[in-house]
Amino acid sequence: MKMIKVSLITFGLLVGTLAFSEPPIHEMTTTNNPHPAHPSTSSTQTAVDDVITILLDQGFAGAIIVILFVWTYRTDKYNRASQKENFDKFVAVSAECSGHMASVSARLENIERELEGMKQLEILNVRKG
């Protein structure tokens, strides 16, 4: 029983390899020549056509690449908008805090002056008494 399973798996792998393998070298050179006899002029349109052809040749993987590109573009666009909104909020909060900190700083300076005045009065009272 184990021998039959192993032979079926081996046969399946062999058939799968033959079915999805590349064509023989002599067929590749005649049909899929990577260097055409007449090179085409390059332009933006041919580059776009080449990219589209490459993606279509990839099939499912090409579709995944396109979907991931669109998803990444939208996510990046959303993140940039969110980042700008958060930065604007940060600037507003920072300006508000700066105003409050200036008020606290002025109050602390007033308290320091009053403490210095009290110390001087205490020193004068100690010397007199």
List SSEs in N-to-C order.
HHHH
Helical coverage, percent range: over 70%
Q: How far is the N terminus from the C terminus?
A: 115 Å
Q: What is the number of helical segments per DSSP (H or I, 4+ residues)?
A: 4
Radius of gyration: 39 Å
Task: Please give a structural write-up.
The chain is mainly alpha-helical. The chain has a domain at 43-128. Helices cover 85% and strands 0% of the residues. The chain has four helices and no strands. The chain has helices at 2-20, 25-31, 44-58, 60-128. The mean pLDDT is 78.
Summary, kept brief:
The protein has 129 residues and is mostly helical. Helices cover 85% and strands 0% of the residues.
Based on the model shown, name its key terms.
mainly alpha; 0% strand
Helix and strand layout, with pairings?
Elements: H1 2-20, H2 25-31, H3 44-58, H4 60-128
